[in-house]
Amino acid sequence: MLYEILMVCYLLVAIAVIGLVMIQQGKGAGMGASFGAGASATLFGSSGSGNFLTRSTAVLATVFFVLSLLIGRLSAHSEVQSNDFDNLETPAVQVEQAPAKEPSSSDVPN
């Protein structure tokens, strides 16, 4: 049950990290705002959105990393079902076959 909850959280955090990275502007995008391109009229101000998005991405990346370690730890200690081919100590099953019937002279067509 815990494993499934962690996997759902892991998926949601991964989608959130992807979304935050996609909406961030590149390093060169600030040049347009300094020359009056209109990008400075944002919700957080000219530099506030960069700090907010950068910190949010860092927090979500840390949560993603911690969840990765937890899921890896839970997966490493799980019991794996094995089959007879993996266990060399299991004796092989002997199957007896009937000897092949040799053709007689009456079975061969003339």
Structure write-up:
The chain is an all-alpha fold. The chain has a domain of 54 residues. Helix content is 52%, strand content 0%. It is built from three helices and no strands. Helix 1 runs antiparallel to helix 3.
Extended strand count: 0
**Total DSSP helices:** 3
Helicity, in percent?
40-55%
Question: Quick one: biggest sheet?
Answer: none
Please indicate the percent range of residues in DSSP E strands (runs of 2 or more): under 5%
The averaged pLDDT comes out at 77
Topology order in helix (H) and strand (E) letters:
HHH
N-to-C CA distance: 74 Å
Kindly provide the radius of gyration, computed on alpha-carbon positions and rounded to a whole number of angstroms.
Answer: 33 Å
Question: How does the overall form come out from the CA principal axes?
Answer: elongated
Structural class: mainly alpha
Q: How would you name the oligomeric state of the polypeptide chains in this document? A: single chain
The low-confidence parts are none
Helix-strand layout with pairing:
Elements: H1 2-23, H2 29-34, H3 48-76
